[in-house]
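TASK: fixed-backbone design
INPUT:
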């Protein structure tokens, strides 16, 4: 049976209220299907919107009232670390696979981007790229690009690999390299950016969506920086979630209502996002696509949205602490999942469990390595005109390989390989290289007196014995890998 869960975080309201069973819960792991129930909880946390990131082993929560990020270990069920930063962290996003997430992207109150390698502790910081705090972050499915949205109405696209490259200029130096600058700035909004999401495609036709306080949602071709389409909304959208098939997106509003925007609402022979006849004309969604609008009652501001695995249910977190489940087919909030008593600021759906023969992760991170500033890196960069040029000698990765490493060993002697490829992929040294090395060593030790027949015979016998032992070791290794 499949089990579906989500992680929810809250922000302390600060007002005295009557005690409830969930009053002190800052983060909870909650089962959603088949039976809703709280699975585990973490205390001592208060997070704002877009300040929660979840991997298979850890939960990262940027605190609303402090310049720290709390790290919780999901396996042990406790708080693993408190990581301080020079600036307040205003948004978080994980790059990489869910089971192997090793990079945390952080947006700061000062408009800078920070990259933290969780398995090495390496920290990379950019210069100030936004005039105001970074409100939201998103990482594309390939983990090659990150998009930051700010209160200054701008969006910056970043190349993650360029930021992490050791050949890039140090961000502490006076001369900033293009590697530490955004790839491009996307300008199209006139007010603060509230949310950004990427499409689910890994191709060059993928897109991004931004929601702004100026009552618009813009679809971007982030590879070229062009606007594909603009949607005019009735109210400022607070949050975004994209359909897994990239056919529609959902937005949440201050009055607690939800609106679905279908890209294929208008008939078109081509992809409507790339239809030039539709691109140049903004679209105003029909009022019938907005659900849960109530008249004459107090609104329940909606702060976050997430879709279930099969996209049949939409979960919403509200300012009054309630998490509701919307039936997408009926377009109605028919179920209250739970009540956490404090404003629910973040929801993260977890991959469902219970599939037969799940593929184990290749790498497992049991403990994160706290980010550290290494002055030796800047000394190396200063000696090389601001570039590291190579991986530092003290660069260490701490993680567990969950399975045997597959070495590219040929399974038959008939496979043709070049000498270089054989030497590169061989687990030790090829026989031909060993024989050549021994022969060169023997000839260099006696340059003027070549070995007699008896010495040559002895060397050949030793070479044959070594070859036999090496072949037996290779057979044992192939057998162990096969098992």
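OUTPUT:
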């Amino acid at each position: 049976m499949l089990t579906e869960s989500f992680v929810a975080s809250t922000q302390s309201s600060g007002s005295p209220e009557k005690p409830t069973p969930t009053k002190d819960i800052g983060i909870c792991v909650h089962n959603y299907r088949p039976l809703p129930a709280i699975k585990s909880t973490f205390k001592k946390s208060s997070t704002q919107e877009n300040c929660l990131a979840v991997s298979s082993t850890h939960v990262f929560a940027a605190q609303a009232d402090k310049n720290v990020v709390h790290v919780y270990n999901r396996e042990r069920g406790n708080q693993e670390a408190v990581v301080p930063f020079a600036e307040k962290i205003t948004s978080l996003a994980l790059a990489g696979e869910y089971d192997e997430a090793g990079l945390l992207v952080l947006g700061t109150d000062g408009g800078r981007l920070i990259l933290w390698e969780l398995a090495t502790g390496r920290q990379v910081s950019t210069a100030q790229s936004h005039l105001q705090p970074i409100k939201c972050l998103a990482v594309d499915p390939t983990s090659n690009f990150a998009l930051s949205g700010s209160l200054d109405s701008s969006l910056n696209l970043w190349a993650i690999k360029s930021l992490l490259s050791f050949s890039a200029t140090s961000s502490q130096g006076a001369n900033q390299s293009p590697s530490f600058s955004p790839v491009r700035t996307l300008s199209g909004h006139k007010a603060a950016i509230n949310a950004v999401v990427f499409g689910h495609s890994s191709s060059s036709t993928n897109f991004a969506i931004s929601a702004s306080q100026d009552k618009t949602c813009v679809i971007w071709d982030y590879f070229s920086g062009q606007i594909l389409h603009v949607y005019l909304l009735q109210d400022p959208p607070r949050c975004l979630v994209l359909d897994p098939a990239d056919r529609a997106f959902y937005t949440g509003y201050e009055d607690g209502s939800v609106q679905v925007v279908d890209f294929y609402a208008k008939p078109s022979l081509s992809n409507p996002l790339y239809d030039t006849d539709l691109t140049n004309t903004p679209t105003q969604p029909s009022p019938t696509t907005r659900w849960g609008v109530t008249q004459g009652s107090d609104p329940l501001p909606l702060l976050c949205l997430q879709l279930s695995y099969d996209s049949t249910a939409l979960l919403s977190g509200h300012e009054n602490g309630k998490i509701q489940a919307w039936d997408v087919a009926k377009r109605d909030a028919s179920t209250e999942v739970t009540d956490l008593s404090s404003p629910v600021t973040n929801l993260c759906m977890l991959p469902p469990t219970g599939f037969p023969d799940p593929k184990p992760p290749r790498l497992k991170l049991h403990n994160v390595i706290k980010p550290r500033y290494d002055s030796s890196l800047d000394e190396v960069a200063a000696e090389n005109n601001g570039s590291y040029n190579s991986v530092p000698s003290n660069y260490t990765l701490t993680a567990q390989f969950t399975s045997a490493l597959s070495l590219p060993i040929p399974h038959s002697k008939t496979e043709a390989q070049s000498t270089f490829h054989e030497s590169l992929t061989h687990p030790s040294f090829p026989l031909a290289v060993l024989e050549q090395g021994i022969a060169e060593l023997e000839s260099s030790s006696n340059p003027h007196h070549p070995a007699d027949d008896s010495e040559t015979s002895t060397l050949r016998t030793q070479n044959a014995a070594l070859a036999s032992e090496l072949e037996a070791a290779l057979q044992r290794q192939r057998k162990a890998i096969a098992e």
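COMMENT: The longest strand covers residues 47-54.
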